[in-house]
Amino acid sequence: MEYYAHISDDGLRLQTVAEHLNGTAARCRAFAAAFGAEADGELAGLAHDLGKCTEGFQKRLLENGDKVDHATAGAVACAARGQLYVAACVVGHHGGLRDMGNPRTDRSGDTTCYGRLKRGIQEKYLDRCGDSGVPLPATIRSSAPDGDRLRISFWTRMLYSCLVDADFLDTEAFMSDEQGRSGFDDMETLLAQLDTYIVPWQNPETELNRLRCEILNACMEAGEKNQGIYTLTVPTGGGKTVASLAFALRHAAVHGMKRVIYVVPYTSIIEQNAQVFRDILGDGNVLEHHSGVQFDLFDGASPEEVRRSLAVENWDMPVVVTTAVQFFESIYASHSSKCRKLHNMANSVIVFDEAQMLPLPHLRPCTAAMASLAEQFRSTVVLCTATQPSLNDLLRTYAPDFPATELCPQTAFMYDRFRRVHFRQVGTLTDESLAEQLNEQKQVLCIVNSRKAAQSIYGKLSPEGSFHLSTLMVPAQRQALLREVRRRLRDGLPCRVVSTSLIEAGVDVDFPAVYRELAGLDSVMQAAGRCNREGKRPADKSIVTVFERTELPPMLFRKAVGATHEALAGGHKIDAPETMERYFHSLRDLTGNALDKQGIIKAFEEGIEGCELPFRTVSETFRLIDQNTFTVYVPWGEGAMLVSRLKAGECTKLLYRQSGRYAVSVYEQHFQALYRAGALLTARDVPALDEDSAILADLTLYSEATGLSLEPETGKAEFI
């Protein structure tokens, strides 16, 4: 009997199980070769759909019969060959990686992997299968790690990624007749494009640009070094974005690596960095992937649009720019859709921009993942920042044979040469006295720790030439405001801006003076990077004023503020590299070394209540950022038309993406206050919305100047 795996959408073509298993196995083997797991990958591919060689599945496929379990048979076959972790990949290749469970206590029918295998053995799933025509190897030489369960968890998830992507791609190739994938430039070509781009930089006329060239050339030379873990500690304004790209491309070309992945903390940075890379390398070689970017396929979509949409699924492009949330939550995911991209992190150069912004409560699992990528999966990891955090001890814990090496050790003495500002500390200021000082300046930026503080201080400024900036404003409005701010700075017009911290990381503005409320020292230094950014003014005339408010900082900032106080105690200079080192050590101490809030590492090393390798449980638990925020769509400007389409029931990815430019994220308390005030339309009113989103129905609560009101009539509270 001939067994079939797929039928084309037009019903005219059939793919046999043998064809699909061989095709998937070949792809899976090739993917797994990136980390030396070729035999494991081939076995997974050959076994994953053995369960389709049954009368039940054939009836399902050809006659639209009942749904059939087709994964258990192949998993049982792998387990019978002693390949338990390959079996885990096979049994979950559609539904996601299950918790492994407990081999002694799990019963047939339990939702764990052991439970599924026991059911498969008892019900003789494998015996039901006919001959696929693809014999499985009797034995294989597995590359799975021995003993260390954390390493095993990373290896299993990576192999799982190889399998699910190979399965998707083979199916896609059959269904679309090999359409839609290819057309990217290789690393050598991209490196040549970068070389061409930087040619005009090689004869700098200013001291600042000479320093930037020194850093750039050092990174280019360092690209020849061995694969491993590196740091790139460059002062603000040192050109680290292009310098790190230069290292990454040279390194990838020298070592035959597949791609470059940039991991950045905020979407406000990702958009800026991705555009820089597109300008250098061409739009078709750069994938921008974060929660605000989705690609809908539609009739008449261009080949480029098709390629980009498909690449989002598995990061199959030479340069990927993504967020830390997307990156780390994918690494600890269990669902096939999120895990699919993981194998494309192997044998890649991965740059973590602004690495100091990794949240402390998750620092240990994040660092363990970085170390694993270098130690197990032949990736090179670069921690790139102006204010290098102290991660060496954690990296040594998880990758003791891969010490972190600085790419530009000479930058240590460059900090004095890069100094473009003078710091002054003025103690505590009332909002009134702060506003008086700001009003006295023609152009000045003031950054505070909460959205409420930003609104309060802005309300005390002279209206002419004063602006407010916070995440209470929709992104489209913030972008328009920043364009106006840059124009005024360029033309010498009055420009006083009060902002939250959103402006201090990666936003290209250049003020002659900056005020920064005391916060984490890394944030203070980021704020200083918005002052005299291009070094066009004397440092002693470019003042960064550090102050405290009469109100306590929000709870979220208090440990960071305490660590800054400790780092500065004894008269240490704010901008000295050793002060930053003191700050990070103090912050770790104040946190109580609680660097794994959710117990992720312990869950894999020790299990949870006897359950081994709890993939699914961890996937449901691990969140880099607490998900206690809600989305409020605001019918402001062009957002009014988009909101009307939501109200009409339209719910495409493209519409949600477009509407995101007219949305504000708020905490639950704020959301509930707006709801009690009758200011929101929720999912009860608009079916296109989900439970975590709403439409602002009362536009009087949205100000052109300050954004969404913090104090609707029925509820007042402090919101960050």
Sequence-ordered SSE layout with sheet pairings:
Elements: E1 4-7, E2 14-16, H1 17-32, H2 38-47, H3 55-63, H4 72-80, H5 84-91, H6 113-122, H7 149-176, H8 187-198, H9 207-222, E3 229-233, H10 240-255, E4 260-264, H11 267-281, E5 286-289, H12 303-314, E6 319-323, H13 324-331, H14 336-339, E7 349-353, H15 363-375, E8 380-385, H16 392-398, E9 405-406, H17 414-418, E10 422-429, H18 431-439, E11 443-447, H19 451-458, E12 466-469, H20 475-491, E13 495-499, E14 513-517, H21 521-528, E15 543-549, H22 555-568, H23 577-590, H24 600-606, H25 615-621, E16 629-633, H26 639-647, H27 653-659, E17 663-667, H28 668-676, E18 680-681, E19 693-696, E20 702-703, E21 707-708
Helix pairs in contact: 1-2, 1-7, 2-4, 2-5, 2-7, 4-5, 4-6, 5-7, 8-10, 9-10, 15-16, 22-23
Anisotropy-based shape: globular
What structural class do helix, strand and pairing data support?
alpha/beta
- Strand-residue proportion: 5-15%
Can you count the helices?
28
What's the gist of this structure?
The protein contains 28 helices and 21 strands. By secondary structure, the protein is an alpha/beta fold.
